[in-house]
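@channel anyone free to eyeball this complex?
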Amino acid sequence: MARRRSSAVTLTDVARRAGVSVATASKALNARDDVAADTRHRVQQAAEELAFQPNALARGLISGTSRTVGLLTDELAGRFAMPVLLGAENALGNGQMSVLLCDTRGDTFRRRHYIRTLLSRQVDGLLIVGDKNDMRPSLTEGIPVPVVYVYGESDDPDDLSILADDEGGARLAAEHLVALGRRRVAHITGEEGYRAARDRAAGLGAVLGEAGLPLVGGVPMYGAWSQRWGRHAASMLLSAHPDVDAILCGSDQIASGVMETLWDFGRRVPEDVAVVGYDNWEIFAAECRTPLTTVDLNLEQLGAIAAEHLIAALDGDRRTGVIRHPGRLVLRESTGPRTSA
Amino acid sequence: MARRRSSAVTLTDVARRAGVSVATASKALNARDDVAADTRHRVQQAAEELAFQPNALARGLISGTSRTVGLLTDELAGRFAMPVLLGAENALGNGQMSVLLCDTRGDTFRRRHYIRTLLSRQVDGLLIVGDKNDMRPSLTEGIPVPVVYVYGESDDPDDLSILADDEGGARLAAEHLVALGRRRVAHITGEEGYRAARDRAAGLGAVLGEAGLPLVGGVPMYGAWSQRWGRHAASMLLSAHPDVDAILCGSDQIASGVMETLWDFGRRVPEDVAVVGYDNWEIFAAECRTPLTTVDLNLEQLGAIAAEHLIAALDGDRRTGVIRHPGRLVLRESTGPRTSA
DNA sequence: CTGAAAGCGCTTACAG
DNA sequence: CTGAAAGCGCTTACAG
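replying in thread with the prediction:
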């Protein structure tokens, strides 16, 4: 079981080759203390010749910091965790920190197990990535290192949560539609149980209210986050309100279904009906027959911001509360003329 | 900078509380040596009361194994790395190993940097996840720990590569079409530069050959991995060969575009033309108007198998060469009657 | 400027 | 059955 590395070059080897003590070799390599220029040079050369890599375990044991953070996701498989992960990994890597990845698959037992493992590995901090942006129970209690929540909000206001600004994103989309002169705007979206759905509906409602415009149908059409629902809801909408001239969709997937139905009904997009999606999921948004104007959640930035706040907390600069990171509107043909690529 | 953990409960604390030496405490907790049942019990209780977690860094320093593997991906953002990652993480987690995640973003400099970091962190092994299944240069040289390649094949036959069996997967699909009595089969697929495209075409060709059937159009229609190409190729195909009765597509995305065009041309799926996709990308395959029969690459299994081989190699059981893991055909409506959900 | 010593938290022969 | 000692690979006061 003891699988010692074969090629383990240690600082002792370097010191021997350079003809100095390990203490001096250590100082020379770490540019601390006063070391004679000549000695430093000899040590560095020896280290290079031996391809010496300091053992991070030994360093961590001494310093008490492993330069590692644990990244705990509820559900890696969904499409939201990935970009967040990517942004975080990138930001942490730039800060010389490594990422220990754990996917709990929504399982509480697994989560506790992973937290224990991560702490025993002396992670310097924890990033908790949610699979939806609803509130979630805080896990911070009993964790002796900084914790930052991303995408899903911790229910403890003493935690720091980095969230996508769904209401603001929907406002961007709605303002765009209003600016285009659309006056009969409807909203087809996902399950009302999701905070994302409610927040987006609220953002749209606010903008329409400010513009003195009604929401077609009176209420958002809540349903499912699927193309199927998009198709179904659109055909109901067109029957009940044939005068609709814009549809804000709760997701690109829904928008994709909506556009299929509009096509079937002979409505032109965007001439007759402007359509806006949500998520900027390229595969739907950029590839469909009529490329889709949509709201990008800036998830990579979300991950990066979370990582930066974690690093700041490690340096003693700890924040609490909620940070809502704005999305951005991506203009494509479904609301207007082809934009120059 | 020295951020020592506040709540660091060490084995010394446990030993003191249990009234024994650290050596005995260690043995009691690790169930080694002979320790009096009573002593063991006292130690365990003390450990529990103090919520003791052994410091994995210290353990690793002694044992020479960190129970950690590095997972190096070329491109996490694509849709293939994720399931592989998931399967690997899961299999490794079950084996008590943690995953250090690194996304090189296809950058060679970054890759070298990450490999150095991972080795200095004393990873026990490396998993290299490709972003496509083409051959790629081996990275193994100079790496003193076992390495397993997943999804992309190493060009060094002394490495172990775990790959999806694209030719076999296409055979499954083709045999299904032939068994359904389709005789005019065409192939619309992605870029010929991709091995996946060529292997799938080869699988289809082989089955058609065995059945004495021609490939409609004589050659595979190579193009791009996009809906757009699917739409375009399908309309060319229908003009040139209106008698086509089945289309094997190189991806679900292509299939999605193909089906849009079939719809526009008034061809019914599957009655007039059977369509098979590739990838089982649920969002396209299960959600489109006519749910899609397709080939699942079993990517999670691929990741899990790679992890298991890595663990085996750690235990001295090292394999080399290529393992092709079969895909599976997922039957939906695009080739036949609705299957019972 | 350099090196011997102590120590990070743990495990493992080795005495007793 | 238990504990003192040595050691994993490194860093950091502390003498010299």
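from a first look: Chain A touches chain B through 61 residues (CB under 8 Å).
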